[in-house]
Structure formats: C-alpha cells, structure tokens
Known about the structure:
Elements: H1 2-5, H2 7-15, E1 18-22, E2 25-28, H3 29-43, H4 55-67, H5 69-83, H6 87-105, H7 121-127, E3 136-153, E4 156-163, E5 166-173, H8 179-188, E6 194-203, E7 209-220, H9 236-241, H10 243-249, H11 251-273, E8 277-278, E9 284-285, E10 297-300, E11 305-309, H12 314-322, E12 327-335, E13 347-356, H13 360-377, E14 395-398, H14 399-407, E15 418-420, E16 423-427, E17 433-438, H15 440-449, H16 452-455, H17 466-478, E18 486-489, E19 511-516, E20 519-526, H18 531-546, H19 557-564, E21 570-576, H20 577-585
Parallel strand pairs: 5-7, 8-12, 14-18
Antiparallel strand pairs: 1-2, 3-4, 3-6, 4-5, 6-7, 9-11, 10-11, 12-13, 13-21, 15-16, 16-17, 18-19, 19-20, 20-21
Helix pairs in contact: 2-3, 3-4, 10-11, 11-13, 11-20, 14-17, 18-19
The chain binds one RNA strand through helix 5, helix 6, strand 3, strand 4 and strand 5.
Amino acid sequence: MVDLLSGDRLSALTSIESLGDLGDLIVSAAALREAAEAIAPLAQGEPVDDPRSLAKPLSVWLRAAGNQTKSIKRELTEFAAKEASSRAEAEILAARRGRLDAIRAEGIDPFPYSFDGQEPIADVRAAHAELEAGAETQRTHRVAGRLASRRGQGGMSFLDLVDRTGRIQLQATSDTLDAKQFALLGDLVDLGDLLGVEGRAFVSQRGELTLQIASVEILAKALRPPPDKRHGLQDADAKYRRREVDLLSSEASRATFIARSRIVAAFRRELGDDGFLEVETPILQTLYGGAAAEPFVTFHNALDRKLYLRIAPELYLKRCLVGGLERVFEIGKNFRNEGLSPKHQPEFTSIEWYEAYAEYHAAADRTESLIRAAADAAGYDYEAEGAIRFDRPWRRVTFVDAVQEATGIDLLAHFQAQVGDGQYEITDDNGDPTGAVVDQDEFLRSAVRAKPKLAKQIADLDSLSWPQLADELLGTFVEPSLIQPTFILDHPVELSPLAKRHRTIDGLTERWEAYANGQEIANAFSELNDPDEQRRRFEAQQRYSESGDAEAQPYDESFVQALEQGMPPAAGVGVGIDRLVIMLTGSSTIRDVILFPALREL
RNA sequence: GCCCCUGUAGCUCAAUUGGUUAGAGCAGCGGACUCUUAAUCCGAAGGUUGAAGGUUCGAUUCCUUCCGGGGGCACCA
C-alpha cells in the first residue's frame, strides 16, 4: 500500500488519463486520484477520524492495485519511457512543432478544411501516358497527398507526392513559383505533410511525368516523422500496433487492403446479382451455435444476463430461410475464444450464404464461381509460379476416398465386417477373420495400429472415437497436401451436427469442406431441416459435451422450433474471408490481412 | 500454458564472437547546389544497447528474472 502510494508512482499514476477497465468497475484517473488523496493519511500512518469514510476510496484503490497491477506496471513503464524519450526524438518533434508555429505566424492555417477539384494521381498519369521524355504540356492538374520524398537542389527541387492511387513527382522552381510559396515548400514543409498542389504537366529529361508546381497549400501538418523512406516500417510489432504508419509508408500494405475490399465487394456483387439478400443477424447472442468453438462471454446489465459473441451466424441465417427470404447472405465478424497463430485471430470475417431448394453439389459450383470472381477482383495472377488455379474446375474427392488414397485405410471397412449390432470382426492382411470382435471405434483404431508409421503420428490414438480418428487422419495425412483447390465431400455425421444425412451412405453427411494452400477455406452442407433429427443431433452433442468435449454445440431449442415451422431444403456455405485474402494477396499471415490484428497482449 | 529465437539512435542495419570512447545509411539540424528520383557534397549533433539484478579486471555479447515481439507445439477457421 505505502509503496504503491509513495511519491513518484502516485504522481505518475494520477497523470495518466485513463487506467481503463478495472474489472467490472471503471475508474477514471480523477476518481483514482480522489481515492488516493482520501486514503493518503492512512498510508502515511496518520490518525484517521472516521475510518468508515475511507471504505469506498480504499476499495477503489485496492481494486485498481489488485486487479490491474500488470496494467499499472505497463502504464508506469510507458509513462517513464515518455518522460525519458531521447533528445534526438525530442528535437525532431520540436523542429516540426516549430514549423507548425511558423506556418501559423505566416497567417496560414496548417489544418484547413478541404481541397477541391483534385484528381487521383493514377488518372493524371493515365492522361499523359503517351508523352515522351522532355515533352511539355499546358495542362494543369490538382492533386493532393502525402509528401513522401524530397530532392532539393537550391533554386529547384523535386518532390514525390503519394495518394491512394499512386505516386507522382512534383517540381518546384524559384523561377516559376512565387517566393513565398517556394520558401513555404523549402522551409516549412516536412516529409509526411499532406499537401494540395496545382501544377502543369511535363515529362522530365529522365522520362518521369512531373507537375511543375504553380501553387501549393498545406492540407495537414504532420507532427511526427514518417519511417525510413526506403525501408518503411520493418518492425513487425510496430506494423500491427501502428497500422496507420505502416499503411502510409508501404504501398504493398495498402495494396493488400485494397485487394481485400475488392474481394469482399465481389462476393457482395455476385450474390446480389443472383438475388441474394444481405442481412445482419445478432453478434450478441443468448446462445451460441453454428460451429464448434469456444465463445467469448459478456454481460448485458439492463437485461441482467450473460450473452455470447457469436461464433457463427449460421442458425439465424437458417431462420431467415424459414421466414421465406430463401436466398440470404451475411458478411461479418465471428469471435472465437481460442489461440492466436498465423492462421487464427480471435475475431475473423466470414461470409455465409444460404440458398433454398439447392443441395451441396450446387453449393460447390457456386463457391467455385464466387471465389473465381473474388480472385479476379483481387487481380490474382493464375499463371504465376506456384499459383493456385482458382480459374480451373476444382478437384472433388470424398472424405473416405481421400483418406484411403493417403493412408490406405478404408474408413468404411467395418460395414463388410459386421457380425452383430455395433459389433465388427477384425480381419487379417489376407482379409480372413481373426475372431476378434470389437466396436466401430476399436475397429478403425486397430486398422491404424496395423500401420505403425501412421499410428506414430496420431496422438492419443487409443482414446479417439471413429469420427475423431477419421477427422485426425484427414487433418494429418490429407489436408497439408491440398494445395490446389479441392472439395472434400461427405463427412462423418458426428462431426456435422447441422448437416443432412448422406442420401446413400450410412454414417456420413452431405457436407464438403474446400481446401487450398493446405488450409480449409470453406465449409458447406445440405442443411439439416428435419427438426426431430436436429433435436437428436443436439442431444448427441450434449452427450459429447458432458463427456468433456468443450467444443460440442449447445442444444438450441428455439432453433429446433424454428425448423418445426418448416425450413425449405437448402444448401449453406461459409467462407473464411481472411484466409482467402491471405492466398489471393500472397500474404504469409492473417495479421497481414487484418488492419488492426489482436496481438498477444489483448 | 510449454519450447526455440529475438529486442542496439526517430527509422533501417553494424559491432572481428567478452576487450579501448557502440559504428553506418536515411530522417532531422547548419551550409552548397536549377532535370533529380536511394539525388549529391561539406559540417555538427543524435545511445542508460527493452528493464532490473548477477558473473567478470572489463558485458551490446555470458547467466537469472521481468516486459515486448516473432516462430513452433496444442486447440481452432
């Protein structure tokens, strides 16, 4: 207590604007300061007249100290770092502030309201694409953007201006620009400032399209310097924490997010053109469902109840089908309370669409054409080395065949070996009965054990059930090899509680997962619409949950009641947008395609 | 959670493997320069080597703990 309250730390703490969320109690800096002052006599061992009056400030302070020691420590560190910021940095910042003051002293507003009539830099370039080196024109253009580079030469200088569409060179000469404006550019403008320029187009002797500046104005002063003009931001931490700095200094980074936007727009356009309705369903849900994952939990004060952030929009979108909307889609964030990795973020974007009166093969056809459209929109180069051929028909192979092909194991072999209800007799290498009679789970496990090379790579082999082991075999021996786009069809029913049973093969469902680049990118079913069957599936999930499966889906009675209202047969598809963007932009991690990714310290 | 790697000037990187006063480029500061584009040239400045301990005559370098970041395992899309 005394230590926490003593001198420097107290003043440091109370100088911080906000300490954030202290458990379920939000403590403002002011409230904390008040509490600290109130209990100061206690901490200093002075007599206290009315101890009860200290109860509240003390609890505020203890809460702050107890719940948030880590956060306080961090704030203190940052505060100390701020205080001790080096002279070099201080000088750089002071120089910019000095010029800000000088600009104001000139009677110029360093933060004006607008700059009208500007053209995208790419359009200016396009307008003069045919000109040769040394060519002059009389056309003037207005452009606006950030000053990225400057090459001064006394009475003349070249500057590079960057906007969202590209970069263009500007020339300032003391001959053609009035003295005040020339001095403004030379003495008061810094790299990183936002400028509006009007200038006449010509092509330099080295062949670079250039605008000779006729007038210039500062559109916003940058008080912090941009990163290294050649290398940009290299520090991964800074790139993600200060994305704005990454974006302003990296054309590649901007291109990634432009491509992302175009990919999402392509889905929206293609589905919209085909009569699909974009809808928005709850993100805060009273019960989560539609996928196997652990949810984030939150609390609504007015309703006095626990709420979950959705892990998928699936169940609500199916209710839209019940309601007759027939073709719906939703693009949005899902939230899963799981680990971070180059492929995983706690919030990620999916698109799901549902089409009444269609089944899963039709869904696969539509998925192929949608992703082709998305790839086209992103400008994906199908011919590049190692490119994923989204432009060709995708391979389609069943779950069972894919596992058979990769491992030699027939997941359905037990059907031929059935000797009683749920009883199967193991055969030897020649197919002769061995006399060992086991259940379905053990039948498959023994088949895997017979191949020691495979068995070695499966953890906890002995505890896996038939569906779990089947999934494991696919994940371990098939998935990593699926570089070119592939549909894996017909998954075990236990893994697919929301999919219709396969119309001919017992134990399987009408489901597919699409893979590319060794990753799952889409998942679809012929949607289960028999409410009684759905009820039984949920009950089975409940049993898995009770036996310790944290990801089993909860029983959603109101969803079953919606099905009782009558849901048309339908196909539903979910596509992971982030992973698709990773592939289509050649990025290597999900953090590179999410503007402000969650980092380890969330 | 566990394992491995990593943190040097505002930015991008060095430092002969433990050895004198931690060096460059960019940016910034002072100066020169009217076709440059990584502009060039001259000058001065900029560092508690993430933090705290320890070992040592001597630590950016080795050890411990803590704080960031990256990769891997497990879970997951």
